[in-house]
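user:
I keep going back and forth on a fold encoding question. Separate attempts, laid side by side, tell us more than any discussion would. Would you put together a sequence-and-structure record for a protein of your own picking? Write it directly below this note and I will take it from there.

assistant:
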Amino acid sequence: MKDFSWPVRVYYEDTDAGGVVFYANYLKFFERARTEMLRSCGFEQDRLMALDKLIFVVRSVSIDYLKPARFNEQILVGAKIIEIKKTSLIFEQTITRQQDVLCNGKVRIACLDAQSMKPTPIPIAILEQIT
């Protein structure tokens, strides 16, 4: 599967009083990378919802925090699909600062019908572009 990475600058709002990224914000960074990965393949999530009546939602997350990211650092957020099922994808995601791995995780994303909120197959057009 394709590797994707997205550079992120750590802003003051991302940190706690000690200047360290607040743990929940790593999940926001993961989300940005997955969104940008879809965008780089030509898919905008608002258009998918409006035109195709589908949304992608987080089903589960596992994350390991290894080293802290700090205010004003430039980090790189990676996203790689490691498993594809009919209605879901599993991403392996890593945040690095130069050669240091700061955290890594696995995120299961489900494809849902935007109206019924029930699982729906991931469109072939999307699968062809992201794999």
Observations:
- The domain at 3-130 is CATH 3.10.129.10 (Thiol Ester Dehydrase; Chain A).
- The mean pLDDT is 96.
- The CA atoms of residues 24 and 80 lie 20 Å apart.
